[in-house]
């Protein structure tokens, strides 16, 4: 499920290749001050994309879409995708997030190591590696009178920016001599000024109809410790300026981002063209393209809100199986291929839209139904006693591991006097059209015998504690004449003496509202208080607990939770039900 489906980005790339926009040796060596980016000439990989997360949280399903677009698109064209950490906001960033992000990208099946590119293998980058060259570029802008240090307060700058309908007002510092700005910029770097005292701004046009071109700030003072550069810097570049510089230094051809950056594109182009005119970057320059971000119902996809869920203890952590994070989806049991199928189905478009959560669930079912091994589990057990089978007798039964994959072979399990069945599979007083167990009725115990229900035992509260039945020895599944007795109901079961105990977690939506952060209120008001239900159930004996995903017959798709199973009792997550129970 690579990003190979026809979409507008592919049309752009196809046209670029046809026009030979990049030539063969398109990317000259980066400036001497830049970190040594690539040791070998870049020629075989003509398409370069990048996935540029900020290491300020775990990645979510929206990022998976961006990873799929960027890595998938590069792979489709035999190109390269860079993993670049956009670590320009020291207060919010952490090494732990860097590692979690690398883990998520790899788990999805993508790699920034291109072993097929001799001498050009690792494409892991950090914006912080460019801090020195970015500083030099900023000085060059100042020298060319294209940037100045503004000593207005942040409030004054905001006020003087103007509005959509009125132009901005020039700062009194706008026309200061380059030397004075250079001096101040050096002082900013040297730590001589407090946060917010001044900022470096590009000198473009305070009357531009695009507010992003009204002398945007490109450097601000932040006396903050950075997870990689430590205390080496107390000024940090703004994302909107840093991003095009990073793209150009790395030889990115197609810089793909989400629609909210569309208004930033003129500044992206201004930055690159200006630096190229100054001889600091070589043409051809990267281009920015925007696609609609993924918005999904019943979750929030904002790292800030996900962080809040974690910090305030509304979930058990970033990898809680209810979280729309890649780590959470993974722990829940989602597979990389199901997430890629979801990305493919939701497509790449220019128009914002909302995707229902059920689309992800259906992608998972379609991904797993053809491959997931089958097994039986009982989630709400009540005992079924086969009164005409001696307690020491064991009859081995068989079932296919997968109905359409005979090569997977058969599974075997014991049929014994005491079984577990689902409580809902017995009714003392049957409802209309109820074909399962009730006194006098016959049903098939799946893969085993037809039984006749003979009654039940109840406790002092009237709750059924045992169901009784007699089996018909000649009706064993798979033997000649097994079908002679016709029944209308089939019931799943496991042997009470052989079954494996397990804790099973059944999940519901994390929010009760489809778009919890759409209204005016607090998204936390819409948390579903019943988003997880834990039951003690029984699994078919012989089940391989190391299987990635099972289909439990009648119940849905389940996956073992290795992290939660640490104390011995297997913990199993329901990924999704067999059918969409959420039809809107
Ligand atoms: P968040 O608002 O959740 O913090 P972000 O965009 O600030 O997301 P980044 O770390 O900057 O987070 O994201 C890395 C890349 O992933 C960016 O190119 C961004 O456009 C993309 N991305 C983030 N969210 C989505 C989404 N919902 N759909 C598609 N792409 C996304
Ligand atoms: Mg961002
Ligand atoms: Mg963000």
From TrEMBL:
Keyword Nucleotide-binding: yes
Record-annotated Glutamyl/glutaminyl-tRNA synthetase class Ib catalytic domain positions: 47-353
Documented EC number(s): 6.1.1.18
Main location, first listed in the record: cytoplasm
Localization of this protein: Cytoplasm
Residue intervals of the Glutamyl/glutaminyl-tRNA synthetase class Ib anti-codon binding domain: 372-471
Name of the top EC class for this enzyme: ligase
Residues annotated to bind L-glutamine: 86, 239
Catalytic activity: tRNA(Gln) + L-glutamine + ATP = L-glutaminyl-tRNA(Gln) + AMP + diphosphate
Domain tRNA synthetases class I (E and Q) anti-codon binding: 490-560
GO molecular function: ligase activity
Keyword 4Fe-4S assigned: no
Record Pfam families: tRNA-synt_1c, tRNA-synt_1c_C, tRNA-synt_1c_C2
Residue positions of motif 'KMSKS' region: 300-304
Motif 'HIGH' region positions after renumbering to this chain: 53-63
Keyword annotations: Aminoacyl-tRNA synthetase, ATP-binding, Cytoplasm, Ligase, Nucleotide-binding, Protein biosynthesis
Binding-site residues, ATP: 54-56, 60-66, 258, 293-294
PANTHER family cross-referenced by the UniProt entry: GLUTAMATE--TRNA LIGASE, GLUTAMINE-TRNA LIGASE
Family to which this protein belongs: Belongs to the class-I aminoacyl-tRNA synthetase family.
Quaternary assembly: Monomer.
HAMAP family: Gln_tRNA_synth (MF_00126)
Annotated protein name in UniProt: Glutamine--tRNA ligase
Source organism: Orrella daihaiensis
């Amino acid at each position: 499920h690579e990003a190979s489906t026809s979409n507008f980005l592919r049309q752009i790339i196809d046209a670029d290749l046809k026009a030979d926009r990049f030539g063969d040796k398109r990317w000259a060596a980066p400036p001497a001050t830049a970190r040594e980016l690539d040791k070998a000439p870049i020629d075989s990989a003509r398409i370069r994309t990048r996935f540029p997360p900020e290491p300020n949280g775990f990645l979510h399903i929206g990022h998976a879409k961006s990873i799929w677009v960027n890595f998938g698109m590069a792979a489709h064209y035999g190109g390269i995708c860079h993993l670049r950490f956009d670590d320009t906001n020291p207060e919010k960033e952490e090494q732990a997030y860097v590692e979690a992000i690398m883990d998520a990208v790899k788990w999805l099946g993508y790699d920034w190591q291109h072993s097929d590119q001799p001498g050009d293998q690792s494409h892991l980058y950090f914006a912080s590696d460019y801090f020195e060259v970015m500083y030099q570029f900023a000085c060059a802008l100042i020298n060319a009178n294209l940037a100045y240090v503004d000593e207005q307060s942040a409030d004054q700058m905001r006020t003087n920016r103007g509005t959509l309908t009125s132009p901005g007002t020039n700062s009194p510092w706008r026309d200061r001599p380059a030397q004075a700005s250079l001096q101040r910029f050096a002082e900013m770097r040297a730590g001589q000024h407090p946060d917010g005292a001044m900022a470096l701004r590009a000198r473009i046009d305070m009357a531009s109809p695009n507010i992003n071109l009204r002398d945007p700030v490109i450097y601000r003072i932040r006396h903050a410790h950075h997870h990689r550069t430590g205390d080496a810097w107390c000024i940090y570049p703004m994302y909107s300026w840093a991003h095009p510089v990073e793209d150009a230094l790395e030889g990115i051809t197609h810089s793909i981002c989400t629609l909210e950056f569309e208004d930033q594109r003129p500044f992206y182009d201004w930055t690159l063209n200006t630096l190229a005119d100054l001889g600091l970057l070589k043409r051809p320059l990267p281009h920015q393209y925007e696609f609609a971000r993924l918005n999904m119902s019943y979750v929030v996809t904002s790292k800030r809100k996900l962080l809040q869920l974690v910090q305030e203890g509304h979930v058990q952590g970033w990898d809680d199986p209810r979280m729309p994070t890649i780590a959470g989806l993974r722990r829940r049991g989602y597979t990389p291929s199901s997430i890629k199928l979801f990305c493919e189905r939701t497509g790449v478009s220019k128009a914002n839209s909302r995707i229902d959560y059920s689309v992800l669930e259906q992608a998972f079912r379609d991904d797993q139904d053809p491959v997931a091994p089958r097994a039986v589990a009982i989630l709400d057990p009540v005992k079924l006693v086969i009164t005409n089978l001696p307690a020491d007798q064991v009859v081995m039964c068989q079932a296919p591991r997968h109905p359409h994959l005979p090569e997977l072979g058969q599974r075997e399990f014991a049929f014994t006097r005491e079984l577990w069945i689902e409580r809902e599979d017995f009714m003392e007083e049957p409802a209309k059209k109820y074909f399962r167990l009730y006194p006098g009725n016959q049903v098939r115990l799946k893969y085993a015998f037809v039984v006749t229900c003979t009654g039940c035992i109840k406790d002092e509260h009237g709750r059924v504690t045992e169901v009784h039945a007699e089996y018909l020895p000649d009706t064993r599944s798979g033997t000649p004449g097994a079908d002679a007795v016709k029944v209308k109901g089939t019931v799943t079961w496991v042997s009470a003496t052989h079954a494996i105990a397990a804790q099973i977690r059944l999940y519901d939506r994390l929010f009760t509202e489809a778009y919890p952060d759409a209204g005016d209120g607090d998204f936390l008001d819409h948390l579903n208080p019943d988003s997880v239900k834990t039951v003690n159930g029984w699994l078919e004996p012989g089940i391989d607990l190391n299987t990635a995903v099972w289909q439990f017959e009648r119940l849905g798709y389940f996956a073992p939770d290795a992290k939660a199973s640490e104390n011995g009792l297997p913990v199993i997550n329901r990924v999704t039900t067999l059918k969409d129970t959420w039809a809107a």
